[in-house]
């Protein structure tokens, strides 16, 4: 019996060690493939840094004029030159050469630590293909393999010292030769080994280890298969790459610049992954821990950072702790997306509490548990839960309930009051008024909301962030995603044609603000904006790129659809328009169909309908037909394409007409954007006038109409 336990324990440790070795080899393959690509990226960066930067490192002590005249114009060239060549330059002695090289090496070390490797799907060279194939192995093995490796390491740590003590019990002769104390220790250790082996077998660890080893050794993968996987799941590839390379974001940024005491409490919060089927980035794990540690919070991460994944991680953790009932409240447009994500990323069951049978579904959810996914409107028809009944209430796009007088806001507030844990998720919690954000916080913590007075707005973002730290976490893309391709935003200013001017003047004199905003499209045969839009789509199509065209107006999208006939859009099929009247499930189908078309395609979308919940990473060109009234609307729309999972650079073209409503809106948007940056982001500058904070859309429209009417009636107008 003792001998059998020791042999089983030895076999289990052998399997655990083998798995650890398989994983280590897979990781080393990534490191080996990454090294030459990373070194080349570092070299390009050093070759782009002018030699004058060495002055910054040495606080201006170096005189570099003669060095530049000698042909050494970059930090990279100084490192290549070395001490001997530097000393040949007139005026450069041993000390100066040593100082220059020391400064250059400091810059080199900094670049080496910070430069990130970007994988370009349009440049599939041999070296990058080797890296993608190596990453593919770990991505395909998935979080189960990582979990198996961690459990194997933990089990080995416990078993190995016991097996050493239990060694005499593995054979009769050894036991005969062992002394009394050694026999006693061996029997006790063998008993403990047997207990651990039984525990491991009940948990299915031998099978888990074997399957993980098979997954890590599967292959060889073809380059084509790996590249296809990368395009479909690039966020997972980059997540593995970041973990192995150590290219993790700055801790303070990843932790949302929380005060030390709160950040430390969050770091020590355990996060159970038993029911989760997705690996988390470091900042995502921190976000999930923040929700668990603080219990009632606003998760305000910028669009594209995976708030949904973080919420699912929290749901999975609470399910592992024994909680059985959860509720997700979201706009109808993303209800399908939520059910898909929960089912794909976790082992939790979902129940859709929406549609004509929602009361029956609610009764089933009450009886069997699971994650009930419902809409703001449907929630009003369900009885509020008793205390402790719901393990977590998740409210997505929570800025929809910032008005405390709205019926849906009251329903959410009632449910939030009955749930011990609530997370309000929104990438745009601030919008234009600090007061609106205070209303959201009030659903979670009345004391924090009361403390968040107008004085915090006047004091600036530092005071504001400190006041809301117990309930608010926000990270921006540039803070945590080093791998995002570039985002190039261009304002396309167009001179209105005579026909455009005529339509615009008629709208102004009629005092119709919305007609003024879309006048540039109403006479399509001579529309300057439409002509530019055709050119952009044509160019994108010729480059094999997909384009998303956003407008606030259905009739503008209808005109664009007619103008972008296949023969005028480089043969690219046109999808949509995707508008608010399109059912939520159908919206996702349209986006999926657009993504699945090989080569160029065009998706037309109403900006308010498509700026919420739908992911459009297939697009690498974005066109916004007119400036919007709120900067967050444009931010959301762009973030649907430029988000985690995007693999190509994204170009954004905003079509603007000179001299009228567009120009006035752009100036006002700039002021609003600065305010948003000061509070919802992290800027230390927060000096905004009350008008900039509190101006309403109707007041803005009235002001612009009056100013434009005065301009066009002036004697020198036109």
Automatic annotation (TrEMBL):
Keywords: ATP-binding, Helicase, Hydrolase, Nucleotide-binding. Residues 288-447 form the Helicase ATP-binding domain. One of its GO terms (molecular function) is helicase activity. InterPro entries: Helicase_ATP-bd, Helicase_C-like, P-loop_NTPase, SNF2-like_sf, SNF2/RAD54-like_C, SNF2_N. PROSITE patterns: HELICASE_ATP_BIND_1, HELICASE_CTER. The keyword Nucleotide-binding applies. It holds the Pfam family Helicase_C. CDD domains: DEXHc_Snf (cd17919), SF2_C_SNF (cd18793). This is DEAD/DEAH box helicase. It comes from Actinacidiphila bryophytorum.
